[in-house]
Specification:
The protein is of the alpha+beta class. It is 23% helix and 28% strand. It contains 3 helices and 8 strands. The two termini are 33 Å apart. This is von Hippel-Lindau disease tumour suppressor beta domain-containing protein.
Length: 167
């Protein structure tokens, strides 16, 4: 199972301007992690749609598949930490002078992560079960059944973790 560090927003000082673009064939739920680490639904994006967000460098974001609640990548990471325009450009063009107050919108692509064959198979099987206890009806090796139960519980936990909706 995928285990990620706990994350939450910190102070709101360094502005970051991001364009989140859904590059998957799935409906994507864009989530901001607030100051308490609560999941705040920001926007639902269809395939190839985008949303422009004015946020801060210390405000983490995640993306979830709307249907399965699987975590998706934002710029090849499960937790996206925005950069200021200047930081982004300094990394991309290290030999160029960037004006102090330069601001530009940074593209952040939402994509599918690459999972192991075992994990991907468990995800496919998981979608046939509502509760982890239902796995006991299968004749599976104990370690495989435990893995399947864990990802079912994880999905159900994420489905209940989103606490508020942006208006």
């Amino acid at each position: 199972m995928l285990v990620l560090p706990r994350s939450h927003s910190l102070r709101s000082e360094d502005k970051a301007y991001v364009r989140f673009i859904n590059k998957t064939d799935r409906m994507v739920e864009l989530i901001w992690l607030n100051f308490n680490g609560k999941y705040v639904r920001y926007q639902i994006l269809e395939k190839d749609h985008f949303v422009d967000v004015n946020t801060y460098k210390t405000h983490p974001w995640i993306a979830l598949d709307v249907k399965t609640k699987d975590r998706l990548h934002i710029e090849k990471a499960f937790i996206y930490h925005p950069k200021t325009s200047k930081e982004y450009l300094q990394e991309k063009y290290p030999d160029q002078e960037i004006p102090e107050n330069y601001e530009a919108r940074i593209r952040a692509s939402i994509t599918l992560p690459l999972y192991s064959l075992k994990y991907r198979s468990l995800i496919e099987v998981r979608d046939y079960f509502r509760n982890a206890e239902d796995v006991d009806q299968l004749d599976l090796p104990k370690s495989l059944a435990e893995d399947l139960k864990r990802i079912i519980e994880h999905r159900n936990l994420l489905a209940n973790k989103i606490v508020s909706v942006r208006h």
